[in-house]
Write the structure tokens for this entry.
Amino acid sequence: MKMKAEGVRKIWDRYKYAALVALIGAGLLLWPGGERNSGGGLPIGQEKAEPPELQAQLEDILSTVSGVGQVRVLLTVESDGERQLAQDMELEYSGPTASPEDYSRRSETVLVKGGSGAEPVTVRQTYPTYRGALVVCQGGDRAEVRLAVTEAVAALTGLTTDRVTVAKWQ
């Protein structure tokens, strides 16, 4: 058992600086970035996804359903969506690699040339999560209209049917 401990100690003495550098590097990668963009408080590379005009689209499509008539839709949002943009990061440090004295990080959004000029590359996009929906329509007093509208809104928003309310237009 003593020979194993001596072998481990020799390996540790030989590679302790490499292990220390690897641990510092992993720590820097996991360290939350303190940089913010000027527009809204999200970390660089993330921006709020523009909420789709789902309410207007729902009003347009629901008004074509038989018996609905004039319609207004209100959606409440649980959480906004966001887009995470691809970033080109550069890390510079001064001092010895085993224990750098200072470091700085620069980041630029990756752009690609598209049909309408340079566009950012989206790495991940999350869409809004809805809390509930209220639909007011002329045919809201008829059960078959309420069912059709409820199912359509649930299918398009991901809401459960108990979170969709259909009321009659006055």
